[in-house]
Amino acid sequence: MTVHFPFDNTYAALPDGFFARVAPTPVASPKLVKLNRPLALHLGLDPDWLSSPEGVEILAGKRVPDGADPIAMAYAGHQFGHFVPQLGDGRAILLGEVIDADGVRRDIQLKGSGPTPFSRRGDGRAALGPVLREYIVSEAMAALGIPTTRSLAAVVTGENVVRETLLPGAVLTRIASSHIRVGTFQYFAARSDVAGVRRLADHVIARHYPDIADAERPYHALLDAVIGRQAELVARWLLVGFIHGVMNTDNTSISGDTIDYGPCAFIDSYDPATVFSSIDEMGRYAYGNQPRIALWNLTRFAECLLPLFCDDQDKAIAEAQSALGGFAEKFDAAYYDGLRRKLGLFTTRADDPELANDLLKAMAENAADFTLTFRRLSDAALGPAGDAHVRQLFADPAAYDAWAVRWRQRSSDEPQDAAARRAAMRAVNPAFIPRNHRVEAVIEAAVNRHDFAPFEELLAILAQPYEDQPAFAAYAEPPEQHERVLQTFCGT
Ligand code: AMP
Ligand code: MG
Known about the structure:
The chain is an alpha+beta fold. Helices cover 42% and strands 13% of the residues. Strands 2, 6, 7, 8, 9 and 10 form a six-stranded antiparallel β-sheet that branches. Strands 1-3 form a two-stranded antiparallel ribbon. The protein is globular and about 65 Å long. The structure holds adenosine monophosphate and magnesium ion. The site of magnesium ion (MG) has 3 residues, from loops.
């Protein structure tokens, strides 16, 4: 018999309290919307078989593949600052783990595959719109080079889900280096289950941070490592204008990947106070708040680890605080290093952050488009002839002129020639991001008109974000006033 999924499951081998065994709920008549063929191959899966009727039934949860050990993971979490001791996979089922072509262990999870013991009042299902949004944005993030879960497939179930209206149901097959969250640790810590926290920490170290297994104080090293990955991740988000939208501790991955795409969105014009999510009424998860929220979430993680640090609680707290105190430095290093590269600077000078911040300030005051400003600035690296295209993005173009003089002065201190600077800048300043109005238009066409051609087109464009793709230049443009999408919805 052919082994279609070379499963090698480790999470399902953890003690019973870590998860609930539950199979996906069969659906009426599944149809494949999209299969990520390159990703399938990378995972050692046969894309032709996955698109066969048998493969599609598995991707829809209608059939369980050989070797799968389907489970819903237990976790807790702070949602908008409020602790919920039990959340868990309410509409997701982990089929199992495979080792990819790089030797990395990957979870294969169905999202929207029916109720689980953690569903609470939910139906365990997902609607097509949010599935397509997650597919598009997670794959765009991957193409931008940002750590993220991936999308292997989207299927429609042939059944409706009840939201405010009846919507077509869908299942996303999500790939992750793991689905372990800060909230997974909180689940055990909230139950004073120190053995559970330790077991989970050991699993995480073996899986995500093997280098620290032999460290003198592995749990301290784990906290430092997760702080480092999260600091780096959030810096990468800011550098492309990404707003996660629901940075709850249950949506904060321990491996440092972007996870749980809900009402996420990219900013068009630069404003750190930007919020799109309809449920984020207080702006807790605004673009510019993300670093401080990451630190807040990491503090919740540190609290879970305290009993593993030492028996003297005061000492453990002091050690955790010292580690958390390192977040700002780690974040600043990643963020300003990224900004320096966006400005085409090859060397480091103490006043570079000021130069970068002054550009961002001018952009905010003049509603300049974030992505286009940096992309066009890359061309302006060739000389002042390129300035016209940048300055027209600013409500008051003179705000750019004053800054550009300083930028040219700074650049001219470096030996690199203009062409090298332009090339380096174009490699970090994307032309194409999943702009909100484009994502919404794609979803509208698919859900209301069963037209998936715009979805395919957008995916193809976003797969090469740093290429010019002149035929699709319109996709690089910000929305016209009447096209602007001001709110996004999580659609759960
Ligand atoms: P999210 O905000 O989407 O990350 O979800 C938060 C919690 O709600 C998680 O425990 C989810 O599993 C659960 N949840 C979200 N949508 C549903 C649904 N349709 N049915 C059951 N549980 C859900
Ligand atoms: Mg979640």
